[in-house]
Design a protein that fits this description.
By secondary structure, the protein is mostly helical. It has helices at about 1-65, 70-115, 120-170, 170-175, 180-210, 220-225. Helix 1 runs antiparallel to helix 5 (about 180-210).
């Protein structure tokens, strides 16, 4: 009888340990999923702020370049402030984008790790299938961002050069001389703004997919992709 009680106690202890371990895995997955989606939201906000700041910088540049401008010092200070804001947003966006990539990698690596612990091969296969589907959707975000970086660098170079040049020659002649560069800056700003659109669309789709199901739901069925929303059409209302 004592032997039976001892064995029962050991079995209960093992089961309790297994449940605690599984709960810990689910908690880890949930935290990583939350961090990933939160970072995506932050990056999305950065992109929308960048689009607004492009407009503000353009307005101050056009005001500075206005042939009828009577207060060039005030106009130049306003333009300089907008250039500095644009540079700050660019650095912030780059930093947050790197964090988003790192957290996404951690999330999918943890999902793969947890998926390998399933004893049922069918559930293990479903989990990996869903992980790969969602990972492909997520990777569309950095893929869409490739063009943004080049456009951002070109735009920042233009507006910085204009600011530096006019800081030494803030005269009607200096403004006239820099006009071709100012026109190019406006065009580069438009290109940057347009390149943001597909990134916002990719972020929105990834957020939707992760909200519909993934490792963060905590159950084997959800991780395996009981409801696959990959083929759902995303509403194209991402104008910044």
């Amino acid at each position: 009888m004592n032997s039976f009680k001892r064995n029962s106690f050991v079995l209960c202890a093992l089961l309790m340990g297994a449940l605690i371990w599984l709960a810990g895995c689910a908690t880890t997955g949930t935290k990583l999923a939350t961090k990933t989606t939160n970072t995506m939201q932050t990056v999305e906000t950065d992109y929308r702020q960048a689009a607004l700041q492009i407009d503000a910088t353009r307005a101050s540049l056009e005001d500075l370049m206005n042939p009828g401008q009577t207060d060039m010092q005030t106009a130049f200070k306003a333009y300089t402030r907008n250039v500095e804001k644009m540079e700050s947003i660019g650095k912030q966006l780059d930093n947050h984008s790197q964090k988003m990539t790192a957290r996404g990698n951690d999330y999918f690596a943890e999902w793969e790790k947890q998926g390998s612990t399933y004893t049922n091969p069918q559930i293990r296969e479903l989990s990996e299938q869903r992980r790969m589907e969602l990972r492909d959707v997520y990777l569309k975000v950095p893929e869409a961002s490739i063009g943004v970086r080049g456009n951002m660098n070109a735009y920042l170079a233009d507006i910085r050069d204009i600011q530096k040049y006019l800081s030494n020659d803030l005269t009607p002649q200096g403004v006239q001389a820099i006009k071709p560069i100012a026109e190019r800056a406006v065009k580069d700003g438009e290109n940057l703004r347009e390149s943001v659109r597909p990134v916002l669309a990719a972020i929105e789709r990834a957020k939707t997919e992760m909200a519909q199901g993934g490792m963060s739901t905590g159950s084997g069925a959800a991780a395996g992709g009981e409801g696959n929303g990959t083929d759902k059409k995303m509403e194209e209302t991402t104008n910044p």
